[in-house]
Each structure stands twice: as C-alpha cells, then as structure tokens.
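Backbone-to-sequence.
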C-alpha cells in the first residue's frame, strides 16, 4: 500500500468518511479503494498532530480510526473521567499525555487539530475555545445543543480562519455520494416526497447504557461534566444516558433525525432551512425518568419537497 501524508483538511474529511463508511459498509460495497488512496503525497513536515476531547463511545471510535491514517498522530487526550485516560493510552498504544482539562490541549502548540466528542451540551464551549486558540476542529454531530449555541458556533467559525467540520458522517459517505450521483443524473426521476426512518427497537437503541462499573466522584469531575446544566448531585445514569435529558442531549432529533436530514440535504444539494415544519413526539415506551421523547416524527417542507422523518 502506498504511504500518503495528510493535510489537516484531508485528515478531517477522511475521519468523517471513515466513520460514514461504517454506516454504509453493512448495506453495500461501493468502492473497494482505501478511503485515503486518492490523496496526493505530502511532505513530512505536513504531519498532522491532533488532540481528542472526550474518549467515550464515539471518541474511542474516532481515535481508533484517526491513528490508522498515515502522517497523523495523536498528541494528547482529554476526558473528565480518568478511566478514559487509560483507554486512550491503550487505543493509541503508547503513553500519550492525558488530562481532565481540555484547555491543556489548546495551550499545546504542538497540536494542530482538536477532535471534539463530548456530550452535546459541551460542544459549543470546546469548539469556540479551540478555534480561538488557533486549532482546526472536527466536532461530532449534532453541532449545537440549542439554537443559540448554533449561532455562537457559526459566528466563531466565521470569525476565525480555522477549518471547522461537523461529523455528520452520512454526508461524507460513499453511499450518499452514489445516491447524489443517481439523483443528479435523473435516475430517480421527479421527486415529490422524501421518506426516511431510523428505528432502533431495543434497550440499547433507547440509550439504556450501563455506567462504567467503577465510576465515582473521585475518578470523574462531575461538576465540570454538568457544565452549564443545572447543578445536581453525582448521577452515574445521567453520565451514561445523557441523551435522555434535554439538559445535556438533543434526544432523538439530535441523535438520529440529524443523520436522516443531513444525508437528505447532501443527496439533494439542499443547503437552506426548511420553509415549514411540524413535529410531534412523546415518551411511549421508556418511562424511566427521561424528559426527551423516545419517538419523534417531523414533516418538513424543504425547497418545494416534503420530507417526512420518523425515528425512535
Ligand atoms: N456520528 C455518530 O454517529 C455519533 C455516534 C455516537 C455519538 N456521537 C456524538 O458524539 C458525542 C459523544 O457521544 P458519546 O456517545 O461518545 O458520549 P459518551 O458519554 O460515551 O462520551 C463522552 C465523553 O466526554 C467526556 N466529557 C464530557 N464533558 C467533557 C469535557 N468538558 N471535557 C472533557 N471530556 C468531557 C465524558 O467524560 C465522556 O467520557 C455526542 O455529541 C454524540 O452525539 C455521534
């Protein structure tokens, strides 16, 4: 296999494509080339050094993928739970520096790029601080926790000259690229309705994740984890199942519908907000104290196309 080195932009695009390929690979194999095979060779000085903030479920996937790319190196990892420092070192396979303070990574001049894989309620602050510190950023979807966070994030990205990429991987996947090619050449014909569903009909799909067995206020900085959310005593279930509560997550909309909408927009070439939307949801099955719906349906009118999305 040829060895290529990555520019920062190519690095960010490639981890997004790699993550998207996981979604696509189960369904159809469209391109057997390695994801980075078409990139031109780069000088050794273009080595990309990244730091990762959040090494939980998604962060550990991103870290595993990112360190496989040639010319790319993990320089440090940050997490508020010390158990994930050990995990990061195991994944990288060498004793990288780890910390609870993401600002340590931002102060590190050796780091070019920050991968942000913290819960939704922390996205804004980490991304805003990272671009202010001169870092390029790959942030997991959903970009924002609230509309106000979204405006602040876009303003911060526009104000800086940094690359800011959101990891809604479907938009970077080979499956979406193929669908777009078919749509653009008229193979699908005139479009009068888009229907999309994403159902995960089991406890894991409903975010009933177990907290780490050893989690405690000694090995987790719980107060910082809460961030701007209302203060409350240490709660291992909130740590593991934060998607269930609006104080930290964005529910089905930000967890699942976002993939359907971003994929649809990428295929149809739509980059605008909908003209109209109506939505409803509720807690129909998981009466476990959550305050986010477990079923969510929405009907949008986008650029003269009705789009129906349902998830739960
Ligand atoms: N693109 C996808 O398909 C996909 C899949 C899963 C998750 N995600 C997204 O990834 C993000 C993380 O989700 P997850 O499932 O990995 O969550 P997780 O709870 O498993 O991991 C989050 C980690 O971030 C750490 N953390 C929280 N606040 C922090 C802070 N201020 N500084 C440092 N570390 C902090 C936590 O201790 C935890 O280890 C979410 O935004 C989620 O929507 C995307």
């Amino acid at each position: 296999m040829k060895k290529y080195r990555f520019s920062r932009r190519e690095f960010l695009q490639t981890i997004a494509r790699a993550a998207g390929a996981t979604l696509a690979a189960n369904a159809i194999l469209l391109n057997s080339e390695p994801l980075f095979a078409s990139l031109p060779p780069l000088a050794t000085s273009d080595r990309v050094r990244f730091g990762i903030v959040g090494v939980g479920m998604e962060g550990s996937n991103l870290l595993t993928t990112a360190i496989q790319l040639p010319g790319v190196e993990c320089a440090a990892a940050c997490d508020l739970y010390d158990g994930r420092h050990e995990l990061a070192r195991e994944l990288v396979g060498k004793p990288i520096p780890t910390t609870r303070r993401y600002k340590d990574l931002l102060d590190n001049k050796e780091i070019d790029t920050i991968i942000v894989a913290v819960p939704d309620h922390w996205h804004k602050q980490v991304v805003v601080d990272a671009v202010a510190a001169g870092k390029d950023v790959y942030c997991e979807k959903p970009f924002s926790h609230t509309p106000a966070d979204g405006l602040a994030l876009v303003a911060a990205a526009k104000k800086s000259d940094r690359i800011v990429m959101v990891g809604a991987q479907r938009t970077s996947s080979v499956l979406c690229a193929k669908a777009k090619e078919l749509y653009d050449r008229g193979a699908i014909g005139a479009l009068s309705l888009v229907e999309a569903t994403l159902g995960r009909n089991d406890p894991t799909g409903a975010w009933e994740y177990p907290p780490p067995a050893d989690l405690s206020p000694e090995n987790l900085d719980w107060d910082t984890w809460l961030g701007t959310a209302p203060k409350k005593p240490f709660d291992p279930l909130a740590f593991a199942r934060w998607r269930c509560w609006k104080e930290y997550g964005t529910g089905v909309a930000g967890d699942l519908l976002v993939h359907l909408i971003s994929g649809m927009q990428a295929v149809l070439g739509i980059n605008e907000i909908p003209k109209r939307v109506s939505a409803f949801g509720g807690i129909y099955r998981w009466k476990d104290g959550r305050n986010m719906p477990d079923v969510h349906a929405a009907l949008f009118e986008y650029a003269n196309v009705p789009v129906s999305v349902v998830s739960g």
